[in-house]
C-alpha cells in the first residue's frame, strides 16, 4: 500500500509541475472574463446617439447594400446586457459590432480585447489550442482525484493545520487546505472545461457517424431551435424592420433580448428566435420562437421544459460562466478562482524545494511561477490597448494576438538574458519562431477568411523572433570567442 501511495504521489507531483503554467493562465483569464459584460462596456463605451432599434435597422440595411445579407440568409443580433451596446451582428460571415454612436467595428472577434482574452483562455492563442486546453482540463481532473489519494490520510490528522515556521510546510499546508476547500468548484471547472474544449471532437464523431455531416440535426436533437429552410417565396407583407421584431420580442419575453435571430431573410418561411435572461433559476434564459407579426409564440423554452441534452449543456454553461445568481455568484467564483491560484502557487513553491536544482523540471517550474506572477501585467496591457487604441487602428487587429503574451513572457525571458542564460533565451526565441511558423501553416490550410489579421501578426512575430534569435545567437558566439 505504501508503494502504491508513493507512486500516486510521484504522478501528482509530475502532473502538477507540468500543467501549472498553462492552468494558471486559464484560471486567471477566466476570473477576468467573469466580468466580460462590464469589460465590453468599458472598452466600447461611446456617447449614445442611436437607440438599439435604430442600430439594428441600420446594420441590416448596410449588410443588404454590401451583399452580405441576401434573401434566404440568416441575420443574428447579440445586444450586450444593460443598454444593448456593443451590438454584435452576424449575417453568416463573421461578426461586426455597432456602438452607441454608430461606430462600426468591422471585425468584432479580432478587434476586441475581451475576445482576444477569451481566445487566450480557451485556446492559449494557439491554432488548435482548444484541444490543448481540453487536455489540461482532463489532466486537472486526474490531478484532483490523485491529490485526494495523496493528501487525504494527512488531511484527516492535520485538518486546519498551518505550519508557518517552515517554508516548505507552510506552502504544503496552504496547497492542501485550499485544494480541499475549493474541491467542488475545481471539479466543476475541470469537468465543464473539458466538455466545452472537446465538444468539437464529440460533434465530429457524430457527424462522421449517425448524422452524416448534418450539424443542424445534432443541434435540433439537443433541443436548440433551428430556423426553417428558405422557400424562395417573398414575404406577403414585406420584410419587417429588425426594430419592430425587437419590440415584439421584448413584449413576448418581458425583457430585453440578448439574442435575436431573423431567418430566412425576406422569405415566406421566416421566423424569429429570441432569448433573454430570467434570473431566477440555474438556467436563466427563456427562449422563444415566433412568426413575425403574431402575438403567440410557436415555442417557448425554459428550464422547466428543456430536453435532457439541452438541459445538461445549458447547466454546464451556466455553471462555467457563473450566469446564475447575479453579481454575488461572480464575486464568489472570483474569490474561489483566486484560491485556486493560491493552491497552484503553494504546490509549485513546495515542488521548487523538492526538485533537483538545475534540472529541466526545476527550470520549467521556476519559469512557470514567474509567468503566473506576470499574468496581471499581460492582461492589463491587453485591456488598456483595447480601451485606448482607435477603433480603426490596424494595431487592434494585428497586435492583439501578441500584446498579452509579450507582456506576460517578458518577465520570464528577461532574467534569462544575462550571462550564460543568453543561450537559453536564444533557444526560446528560435523555438517560438518555429511555433509561429507552424501556426502560419495551420492558418494557410484553413483558408484566410477571418484569419488574415492573425496571419499578418504571426508573420511579423516570426520575423521579430528570427531577428531576436539571430542577434542573441551571434552575441553568444562573440562572447564565446572572447
Automatic annotation (TrEMBL):
TM annotation in the entry: 12-35, 130-153, 174-202, 328-349, 369-389, 395-414, 426-445, 451-474
Presence of the UniProt keyword Transmembrane in the record: yes
UniProt xrefs under Pfam families: PepSY_TM
Keyword Zinc among UniProt keywords: no
Keywords recorded for this protein, A-Z: Membrane, Transmembrane, Transmembrane helix
Domain of life the protein comes from: Bacteria
Name listed for the protein in its UniProt record: PepSY-associated TM helix domain-containing protein
Amino acid at each position: 500500500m505504501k508503494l502504491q501511495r508513493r507512486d500516486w504521489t510521484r504522478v501528482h507531483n509530475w502532473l502538477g509541475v507540468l500543467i501549472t503554467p498553462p492552468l494558471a493562465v486559464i484560471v486567471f483569464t477566466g476570473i477576468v472574463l467573469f466580468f466580460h459584460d462590464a469589460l465590453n462596456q468599458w472598452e466600447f463605451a461611446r456617447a449614445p446617439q442611436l437607440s438599439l432599434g435604430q442600430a439594428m435597422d441600420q446594420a441590416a440595411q448596410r449588410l443588404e447594400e454590401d451583399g452580405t445579407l441576401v434573401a434566404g440568409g440568416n441575420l443574428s443580433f447579440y445586444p450586450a446586457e444593460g443598454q444593448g451596446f456593443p451590438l454584435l451582428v452576424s449575417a453568416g460571415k463573421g461578426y461586426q459590432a455597432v456602438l452607441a454612436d454608430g461606430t462600426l467595428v468591422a471585425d468584432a472577434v479580432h478587434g476586441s480585447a475581451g475576445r482576444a482574452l477569451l481566445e487566450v483562455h480557451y485556446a492559449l492563442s494557439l491554432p488548435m489550442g482548444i484541444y490543448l486546453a481540453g487536455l489540461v482540463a482532463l489532466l486537472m481532473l486526474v490531478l484532483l482525484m490523485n491529490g485526494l489519494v495523496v493528501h487525504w490520510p494527512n488531511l484527516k490528522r492535520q485538518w486546519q493545520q498551518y505550519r508557518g515556521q517552515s517554508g516548505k510546510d507552510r506552502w504544503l499546508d496552504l496547497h492542501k487546505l485550499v485544494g480541499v476547500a475549493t474541491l467542488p468548484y475545481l471539479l466543476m471547472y475541470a469537468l465543464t472545461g473539458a466538455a466545452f474544449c472537446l465538444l468539437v471532437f464529440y460533434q465530429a464523431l457524430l457527424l462522421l457517424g449517425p448524422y452524416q455531416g448534418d450539424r443542424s440535426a445534432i443541434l435540433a436533437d439537443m433541443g436548440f431551435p433551428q430556423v426553417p429552410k428558405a422557400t424562395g417565396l417573398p414575404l406577403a407583407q414585406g420584410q419587417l424592420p429588425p426594430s419592430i421584431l425587437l419590440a415584439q420580442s421584448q413584449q413576448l419575453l418581458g425583457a430585453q433580448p440578448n439574442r435575436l435571430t431573423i431567418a430566412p431573410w425576406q422569405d415566406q418561411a421566416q421566423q424569429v428566435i429570441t432569448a433573454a435572461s430570467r434570473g431566477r433559476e440555474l438556467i436563466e434564459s427563456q427562449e422563444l420562437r415566433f412568426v413575425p407579426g403574431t402575438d403567440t409564440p410557436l415555442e417557448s423554452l425554459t428550464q422547466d421544459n428543456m430536453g435532457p441534452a439541452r438541459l445538461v449543456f445549458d447547466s454546464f454553461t451556466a455553471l462555467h460562466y457563473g450566469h446564475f445568481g447575479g453579481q454575488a455568484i461572480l464575486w464568489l467564483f472570483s474569490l474561489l478562482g483566486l484560491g485556486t491560484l493560491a493552491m497552484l502557487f503553494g504546490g509549485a513553491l513546495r515542488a521548487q524545494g523538492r526538485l533537483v536544482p538545475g534540472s529541466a523540471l526545476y527550470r520549467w517550474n521556476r519559469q512557470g511561477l514567474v509567468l503566473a506572477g506576470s499574468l496581471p501585467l499581460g492582461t492589463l496591457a491587453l485591456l488598456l490597448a483595447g480601451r485606448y487604441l482607435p477603433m480603426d487602428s490596424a494595431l487592434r487587429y494585428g497586435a492583439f494576438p501578441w500584446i498579452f503574451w509579450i507582456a506576460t513572457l517578458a518577465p520570464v525571458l528577461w532574467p534569462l538574458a544575462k550571462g550564460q542564460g543568453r543561450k537559453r533565451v536564444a533557444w526560446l526565441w528560435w523555438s517560438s519562431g518555429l511555433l509561429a511558423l507552424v501556426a502560419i501553416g495551420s492558418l494557410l490550410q484553413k483558408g484566410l477568411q477571418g484569419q488574415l489579421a492573425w496571419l499578418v501578426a504571426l508573420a511579423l512575430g516570426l520575423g521579430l523572433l528570427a531577428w531576436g534569435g539571430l542577434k542573441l545567437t551571434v552575441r553568444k558566439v562573440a562572447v564565446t570567442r572572447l
